[in-house]
């Protein structure tokens, strides 16, 4: 997962926003609409970042179709220290 984290947050556009998404979901699970409002980004942008994070097992979606909640995965939680190192790098270089 370490390589996936570096890719998601440093090698692609949007890494700063993906860090913000993860930090927001660490506070509590949220749906895409709430996340977009909280981070002041477009709903489609929030969905794009959530989809990328889901594809790389950082985030998982509840089974609901409408207003599905997004959670951090157990796999991500096991790699939280690596994420924090990467996030510090991203937030500094911003």
UniProtKB/TrEMBL annotation:
InterPro entries: ArsR-like_HTH (IPR011991), HVO_A0261-like_N (IPR057527), WH-like_DNA-bd_sf (IPR036388), WH_DNA-bd_sf (IPR036390). SUPFAM superfamilies: Winged helix' DNA-binding domain. Residues 16-91 form the HVO-A0261-like N-terminal domain. This is Transcriptional regulator. It comes from the Archaea. It holds the Pfam family HVO_A0261_N.
């Amino acid at each position: 997962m370490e390589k996936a984290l570096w890719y998601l947050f440093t090698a692609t556009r949007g890494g700063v926003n993906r860090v913000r998404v993860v930090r927001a979901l660490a506070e509590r699970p949220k749906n895409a609409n709430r996340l977009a409002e909280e981070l002041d980004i477009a709903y489609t942008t929030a969905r794009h970042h959530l989809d990328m994070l889901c594809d790389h097992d950082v985030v998982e979606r509840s089974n609901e179709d409408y207003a599905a909640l997004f959670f951090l995965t157990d796999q991500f939680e096991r790699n939280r220290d690596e994420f924090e190192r990467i996030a510090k790098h991203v937030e500094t270089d911003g």
